[in-house]
Structures are given as C-alpha cells and as structure tokens.
Amino acid sequence: MNVLIVHAHPEPQSFTNALKDAAVAELTAAGHEVVVSDLYAMNFNPVASAADFGSRGSEDYLNYALEQRHNVKANSLAPDIAAELAKIKAADLVLLSFPLYWFSMPAILKGWIDRVFVSGIVYGGRRIYDQGGLSGKRAMVIATTGGRDHMLSAGGIHGDLTETLKPVLQGTLGYAGMTVLAPFYGYHVPYISQEAREAVLDDFRTQLRDIEKRETLVMPSLANFDAEMKPL
Ligand code: FAD
Q1: Helix axis angle, 15-29 to 194-209, nearest 10°
Q2: pLDDT tens digits for 151-206?
Q3: Protein residues whose CB sits closer than 6 Å to any atom of ligand 1
Q4: How far is C-alpha 171 from the geometric centre of its chain's CA atoms?
Q5: Most buried among 12, 50, 61, 181, by the most CB within 10 A?
C-alpha cells in the first residue's frame, strides 16, 4: 500500500521523529511505499489566506471554503496545496505524527489540514463520514505527550486522550471519510528513562506489524441521519 506520513516536530532529533523514522523503516520493510511530508523541514506555510487561490470565484469577499471549491474546479489551487493533495490522493494510509500541543496538534499541522483538506474534494455537502471524499483510505495518529498515561486516561485529571483528540480523529479524519485506526501514544517521553523510551519504540514497531488487524474508531454513518442531518 501507499503510506503518507505527515510529521510535525521542529526538532529532527526528537523522540517523535524517532517514532516517525521507525514507521518509515517498518512499513518500508513490509513492502509498502512510504512518503513523508515533514512540515517543519518543508517550512510548510500553515496560514490559510487568499494567496492560496490562483483564481477567484468572488473577487470582493473571501469565503475560504467556496474559493476552495472554485479553485478545485479551475485547477488553480496554490502549488504547495496541490502537491499535498496529490500525496493524499495516492495514499491508502495516512499517518499523522506529532507531539501533543495544548491538548491538540501543533499549529503547523492544523494549518496543513485547513489548507489541504479542501472543500470540493475532501468534504462538502453530504460528502462526509462514510460518504466523505477520502473514504476507502485509513488514517492513524501517532502522538507523544509530556503528561503521564494515567493523567490522560478516562477518570484522569485531563480525561481520555482519544476523546480529547476528537477534533482531529472524528472532526477531521473521520469527517473526511477515512477509517480511523486506534491512535498510538508515547506518554511522558521526555521524563522516562532511555530504556523505557526504547521499549515504547519497540512496542510501536510491533503494533505497526499488525496494522491490518488494528482496532478502528466508531464514526457516525450518514445512513442514520435524514436529509437535514437529524437522527433517524
Ligand atoms: P523529546 O524531548 O524530543 O525527546 C525526549 C527524549 O527522547 C530526549 O531526551 C531525546 O534525546 C530522546 N530520544 C530521541 N530519540 C530517541 C530514541 N530513538 N530512543 C530513545 N530516546 C530518544 N504535553 C501534554 O501532555 N499535554 C499538552 O497539552 C502539551 N502541550 C504542549 C504545548 C507546547 C507548546 C509544548 C512545547 C509542549 C506541550 N506538551 C504537552 C509537551 C509535549 O507534548 C512533549 O514535550 C512532547 O510530546 C515530547 O515529545 P518529543 O518528541 O518532543 O520529545
């Protein structure tokens, strides 16, 4: 299969980067084609703006999503957006690799999503969840944290991390139609021992070998909602 890893960490020697490298090595060794978008290394522009559009449906008012649709039809999206979209279209599996920042993803990755998950291809109208533009593809989050496992679990002080990451897991990946695999978390990684970090890497490699059997998160199905998206 074709794998796209979208990686967002500013330090090439980081543990998050080591997890990304482990994914590249494991998946390549298993015979998959792996492409990496290393957003900080690419100096990826995360700021959605009028400069993203080579032509305009409306010259005097920027409705970003409508201009995305117009520029999809006109084939005039900015080259950096078009290049990332082509990688997504070619991918069977998309991995998002990042350190947890403020209960969420780093801004550079959020900006990649804002600009690259374009209306008119990825979503739009009823083109969401199991009807989403990226249906048939799979996605998985690989995240590291400063917090400890028990702090980021159900009943813990911050609550369950998979619930916390709903904006990316459901609101982005699931919404776009992707089958969302259970995330992998490396907890508390700056503060544990070198041996413990190596064990996290080993566990990650082992889990990647079983990716075909990995648990998936339950997402809404449009079949359960009427034309106005009210529950049937
Ligand atoms: P690093 O600090 O880069 O690495 C940890 C250690 O691993 C280093 O000593 C490194 O040398 C070592 N290492 C590197 N490669 C290997 C290898 N191959 N084998 C073994 N060891 C290796 N945390 C939360 O829990 N919740 C939050 O909401 C949150 N918000 C944050 C917001 C911001 C703006 C910032 C900057 C941090 C935040 N954090 C938060 C903490 C952050 O999530 C963690 O610091 C980060 O995930 C740790 O991962 P890292 O890759 O940066 O670790």
Answers
A1: 30
A2: 999 999 999 999 999 999 999 999 999 999 999 999 999 999 999 999 999 999 99
A3: 9, 11, 13-16, 18, 99-103, 144-147, 189-190, 194, 197-198, 201
A4: 11
A5: 181
Tell the residue nearest (CA) to atom 32 of ligand 1.
101
Residue nearest atom 52 in ligand 1 by C-alpha distance: 14
Beta strand pairing call for 184-186 and 2-7: unpaired
Query: What number is the average pLDDT over the span 9-23?
Result: 98
> Distance, CA 102 to ligand 1 centroid (Å)?
13
Tokens 């390549």, located at residue = 28
Question: Among 40, 96, 97, 100, which residue has the most ligand 1 atoms within 8 Å of its CB, making it the best to mutate?
Answer: 100
What domains, with CATH codes, occur in the chain?
A: 2-224 (3.40.50.360)
Contacts of 68 (CB under 8 A, 6+ apart): 52, 53, 77, 118, 119, 120
In tens, the pLDDT along 115-140 reads: 999 999 999 988 999 999 999 999 99
The DSSP secondary structure of 199-226, one letter per residue, reads: HHHHHHHHHHHTGGG--B-----GGGB-
